[in-house]
Amino acid sequence: MPVCLSHTSALNFFRAAGASNNDISSLPRTGKLDECGATNIAEALATNEFPLYLTPPIHVLVKGRSHSHAKEHVTRHACHTSLTNRSLVRVTDDLLVVSPELCAIQLCASLPELDAALGIFELCGTYSLPLNASCRPSAARNSTSRQTYGFGDDAMQPASPRTAEWGFSQRATPLTSCKKISSFADTIPGTHGLTKLRTLLTYILDDSASPMETAMALMIAGPPRIGGMGFKGAVLNRQVHTADGERRVDLLWPQYKFGLEYQGFDSHEGWANRVKDDRRRNAIAAKGIEIASVYYQDLANPYYFDKLIASIAKIMKKRIRITTTEHQFRQMTLRKAVLPPVAGI
Predict the structure, then answer these.
(1) Domain boundary residue among 125, 158, 192?
(2) pTM
């Protein structure tokens, strides 16, 4: 009997695929859930081609009220909705996983708003947090210490020093997009989680390349309701045509011809890298786009963050009207959720 991974277990499947450089876009899709149960987890995972260790409970999707006996480490989710033929990804004959679009809806149905938003940023971006990590970057480092269930080598580490430090790996292309998620949601009206999803899609951005870009987008462009500053109209990693070729801007407001570049801790190691960054910025500036650098302290330290926001507001000629104590609390909560802790800062 095949097994269909769902909810956070599906998110972990996509993380494992990304860490192993497996492209799931070519895998066949289906909407048939009739035969899926919850009893052959170990056998189903064993047929997978890449390491997949999952922390219990393992979430699986079954049709209606399944009468199959589930083990104590498995959580069954009954599906009473007719699924389209793009709803499930068939990995092997014994293993299916919900599509990234359906996974996004399930995250909205099962997680608090901010955690669901972070998960969808990940699905719509080109980075993956470690297997079994919380959606929050601050919890990523301790993810491998918990009991896991599955097959493969759970000691995988990203090759890049930067990604190892921050606890994430890169993939070539996003798994989905906000537009695809929204279109898919239209095919399953009445599904639990859709109301929250519609709200999240008003501020989630496609193409984030790292947890820090996601944090920057949420803290600066996110709605004040969740602690953001509400600078709308931003896009992530937008390509700019320059005389030196295509250049990307981390967070860009096209209508203001202004963008932000996050400078990681290894961004300026060595003279060659500094020259490369300067030339890139000069090429973008030649197109009339002003670029400002953002460092970790600018987001983590309230004093420096206020100075950054004041600079952005001045460039955009906007007045900052958010001064309530309630918003300060929300901002503190958001900051704690999206920023990974760094020793000594």
Answers:
(1) 192
(2) 0.87
